[in-house]
Structure formats: structure tokens, C-alpha cells
Amino acid sequence: MAGTAAVLEDSSLLSRLDRALVPLERLFALLSGLAVFSLMFLAAYSVGGRKFFNMPLSGYVDYIEAAMPLIAFMGVSYVQREGGHIRMDIVISALKGRAMWLFELISVLLILALILALIWGSWSHFDRSFDMSKPLWSRDSSIDIGLPIWPSKLLVPVAFSVLALRLVLQAWGYARAFILGLENPVAVPLILTVAEQARLEAEQLEGSD
Length: 209
Description:
By secondary structure, the protein is mainly α. 70% of the residues lie in helices and 3% in strands. The protein has helices at residues 13-53, 60-73, 76-82, 89-94, 97-129, 150-180, 194-208; strands at residues 5-7, 189-191. Helix 1 (13-53) runs antiparallel to helix 2 (60-73). It is globular, with a radius of gyration of 21 Å. GO terms for molecular function: transmembrane transporter activity.
């Protein structure tokens, strides 16, 4: 299914940096999807073991807790690039030209400030958990089977750092569009009309035949 936004590309430095970050974002999104897929199998294994053998999967809740950062955070930068997050498209589509780019720039800068604070906080949370002098380098562990928690805690600042890079590029793109008065800037999600979305979906269907 086609998305509601498109990202344009050209030969500029900004666009090259945008494209350079995409493979990492796609890898993180893939890991997030694989984590969801794995939990489906774990759930089926646990339910089947409980029903037929009275032996549910030991540590099932621990595995879910360990996978939560993968599921919740690893794909956020990719979704941010594609404009897939919840947005006020009705408000934004009513703005035109520099007013729209200024609104987008302020929004991205506010998000970036929040993410930088979350990176600092989540790294501190990881740092309190990680200790190389402890067994499995961990000061804390899961309740049931004793999984070390620091790897899951580390994923949060890592994922948010990639998102911060994406937000910096988008802020650059929106600032450039605002200053130069560009109509279709690169490296930022541009809202598609309903007709454009329908056309892209039709092209995808034709390509899959």
C-alpha cells in the first residue's frame, strides 16, 4: 500500500546524507519486524506447550520484555523519514509555501529537543544497569529466568540516536526550503494528495502482476 508522503531526492549533499542513512533505518525496521514475528512463534509455542503438554515456555514474559525496545523503538527513524507517524495533515495541508515549511521546521526542532533529552535519560538508565564486574555484565536481570536487561536498555538510546540524525536532516531540509522558498524540497516527507496516493497504489499493483 502506498504511503501518504513522498521523499524527493537529488544530487545535493543533503539528499546524499539522507540516502546514506536509509540503509541503517531499514535494517533497524527489519529487526523490529523480525522481533514481532519471533514473538508470534514464542506465543504459539508457549500456548501449545501449556495446552498439550502442560509445559508453557519458561521465561515467556521475560522474552517479551527483552524484545519490547526492538518492537517499539527500532523502526521510529524509518517511519519518521517516510512521514508515517500520526500527523496533523489537515492543518499542514492548509498551509502553503514558507508558512508550511516554518511550521514543519518548528515541529521537527521540538521533537529533536525531546529526543535529545530521551537519549540522555535512556543512556543514564542503561549505564546504571551495565557493570563489567558483574555476572553477564548486568546489575539487574529479568524476574523469571534472569536475562540481563542492559542489552534491551542499550537499544533505546541507539534507536533514538538514529532518529536524532534523521531529525537533524529534516530540520536542515525544512530550513533550506523556508529560506530559499522551495516548492518541493528534498529529504523531507511531502504530503501526497488522494489522487497521488491512488496513482502510486495503482503503480504498485501493476508492478506486482
